[in-house]
Amino acid sequence: MKYTKGASYERISKADEGDEDGVIRQGEDTAELAERRGIPLQGRRFRDNDKSATHGKHRPQYERLMAAVQRGEVDVIIVYMLGRLWRNRRERAEGIEILRKHNVSVLCVKGPELDLTTAAGRLLAGLLGEVDTFEVEQMSEREQREMRQRVERGVPPTGPRCFGYTADGAELVEDEATEVRDCFHALLAGATLSGLAAGLNERGILNRNGKPWSYNAMRGVLLNERYAGLRQYRGELYPGKWPVIVDEATWREAKHLLEDESRATRRGPGRRWLLSGIARCGVCDDGTTVTSGSRGGPKGTRGLTAPLYRCRKTKHLARGTEPIDLTVEEYVIRRLSRPDAVDLLVDETAPGTEELRAKAVALRSRISSLTDEFADDDDADAAAFKAAIRRIKTRLADVEAQMAHPQRSRILVDIVTAEDPAEAWKDLMLDRRRAVVATLATVTLLPGRPGRAPFDPRSVRIEPLQGMG
Questions:
Q1: What are the residue ranges in the chain where pLDDT is below 50?
Q2: Is 10 found in the same domain as 70?
Q3: Are residues 206 and 302 in the same domain?
Q4: If 455 and its partner were Cys, which of 190, 323, 380, 444 is the partner (CB 3.0–4.6 Å)?
Q5: What is the pTM assigned to this prediction?
């Protein structure tokens, strides 16, 4: 048959980024066949690289080819083999019908010439296509069985490297794993996704692709069950045999928090000031919180602004942020530096708290007594003393853990147990500081003195929450 309006189509399902060798080879073979048969292509060459045809995904060049067919610009399509043109039944049936309607044949480098205007040609195209589909489905079944076996054996998932793990997923990248662990703990202690992403970016910690963190990337990490040593397959979770970064309970709590529809989320930049959205307006005195803003500097200081806390409703309250933040920070550090600060971690409503508290007091007393005895005994064995203290402290830690209020402990423990609470406060990210304030007290901002009167700390009303006094 003599063809006068030829077109070629090349496709590779999977190719590395920038790798076009496969489709180039196909193109050389289709061009050689067109030249041998004397079929002019005249620029009608269509190529989809790294595009699967199995699931009917968008193939832009294939769609351009079929549009050219329907405009009457093509009377034969040259392909390396029929499977490059179609791989699923729906597309094959639709394509055969379009080619039949417009009197277009298919010519294969490796395969027969198919005249789709005849019943025999369409039958052969359908049979060959079914063989292609069978091969694809059989390969898919083998891959699924292999995947299930890997899941059941606890083998790490393949694919792109997971932040925190080596490329094969079998070992930890320790510095990245530490960052992941800290992000989980910070989230459960009150941090926001935007704040976590901003904190990593400020410290120059990039994601696995070497790019800055975003809200969605941070969310994806904290929802990833892999960090808890789990793997999802067909809706079920299976245990894996790779190092975990957080325990399953921590991951599940983070997942619950992130998927809670009632939880307010922020996709924009994280908060910039300690009390925005936390402190209340003392003029409204109805629970209305303040937001942050700014005002211009004095005349002649173009571009300078002063940060403010403003009432969210009206303009009747506008206070400079710095002295207010310092006042609240001093209160927090003073409260968390008291000897009884550890009691803030205790869940008073938990059953058996009084009994556990008595055990804790007895263990602390025992540590104190042993220390005094060691100090007074010149012949005391230092190694035995250290071992005894270590055992008692381990028991004390277990008792304190049983008494601990889960949420308050996560938020406050870093400061309460620090040797220097003031330094520990400085090391906290802003989100954690905000969570500490919200856990300890209600802060209400009253109007300041008029004019240039000095700041009055009494205009910041700090009332401890129940059990936090």
A1: 15, 18, 268, 301
A2: yes
A3: no
A4: 323
A5: 0.52
